[in-house]
Amino acid sequence: MANHSQLSFQDASSPIMEELVEFHDHALMVALAICSLVLYLLTLMLLEKLSSNTVDAQEVELIWTILPAIVLIMLALPSLQILYMMDEIDEPDLTLKAIGHQWYWSYEYTDFKDLSFDSYMLPTTELPLGNFRLLEVDHRIVVPMESPIRVIVTADDVLHSWAIPSLGVKTDAIPGRLNQTSFITTRPGIFYGQCSEICGANHSFMPIVLESAPLNHFENWSSLLSS
Q: What structural domains does the chain harbor?
């Protein structure tokens, strides 16, 4: 999760988030190069003496027409690749259904016969020592590590948004509609998110907590919860 005064992204915990961070750095370097060039030209115009001579500038016009097109291609190709990767869902090992309510989340493990629960934020008065205020819940999502997970997202009342920044996941929850996303956790850990759509008075009090664990731990957890 993010730290105080942190300016960069959270540590990437999925291949998609690693690609998003890399694309961000790539786009930032392109923007830095453009700003440096414009600043250099402005400085040159201010310091050099003006000339009233008119010359044929077809070469210059050709350059400033083609160069922006090349820059746009440099940004578009990796962006389209990441969009394709985010939409591609190929034979997931587990399907999780997330349902947004005012103001809590319900989860259903559709691959199991009877495995579902509601997830409410823990009030400050009941928060165990060392847990995060306004981010901890009474029932965490548990998924197996290094396994493709499909998440089907919907809502029961108003618009919500299921988002976990460190996994690069953000999907709108819309009443009467099923949206889906997918992710693969690359390491064990606990990842925090929140509803990212203003959904009413307690919008900021419906956190998301996902625990990535080894497969045997997940199997023990699911059998214990199903019994």
A: 15-87 (1.10.287.90), 94-226 (2.60.40.420)
